[in-house]
Design the sequence.
């Protein structure tokens, strides 16, 4: 009885988080020409797309260069997405990398972990370089562009 109650509460939590954690659809950069999204606040948007059949549960979010408000722990449902903003910095940081890291577990609806992904988002002004890297464990593939990563089930 208590396990069922916990499962129901978890599902309700997932739904609530998804409802209140909508991303800004105007900042999408997953398009044919990989255009750079530099917003007026001085940050670059990086998108994580979940095209797997699993729930992506954030486990580790680190990066002193994430734009405020600092990212909170969250989930990405199958077919969902999440946007991160990495600060460009000021003139004293033009030669330095601005980095944000996000690690996720891939969980089935019963809570079992089937794999993980480590994502690193980075920007450097001089020389100009924007990178998104992803390393997966388990039956998953990652496709990356300069400002996005799409995760898929390994066929």
Sequence:
């Amino acid at each position: 009885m208590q396990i069922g109650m916990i499962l129901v509460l978890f599902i309700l939590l997932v739904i609530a988080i998804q409802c209140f954690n909508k991303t800004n659809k105007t900042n999408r950069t997953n398009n044919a020409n990989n255009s750079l999204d530099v917003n007026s606040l001085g940050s670059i948007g990086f998108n994580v797309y979940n095209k797997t059949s699993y729930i992506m549960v954030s486990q580790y979010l680190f990066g002193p260069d994430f734009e405020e408000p600092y990212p909170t722990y969250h989930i990405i449902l199958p077919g969902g997405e999440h946007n991160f903003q990495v600060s460009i910095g000021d003139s004293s940081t033009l030669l330095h990398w601005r980095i944000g890291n996000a690690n996720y577990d891939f969980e089935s609806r019963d809570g079992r972990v089937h794999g993980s992904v480590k994502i690193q988002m980075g920007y450097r002004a001089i020389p100009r370089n924007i990178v998104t890297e992803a390393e997966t464990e388990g039956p998953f593939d990652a496709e990356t562009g300069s400002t996005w990563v799409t995760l898929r089930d390994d066929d």
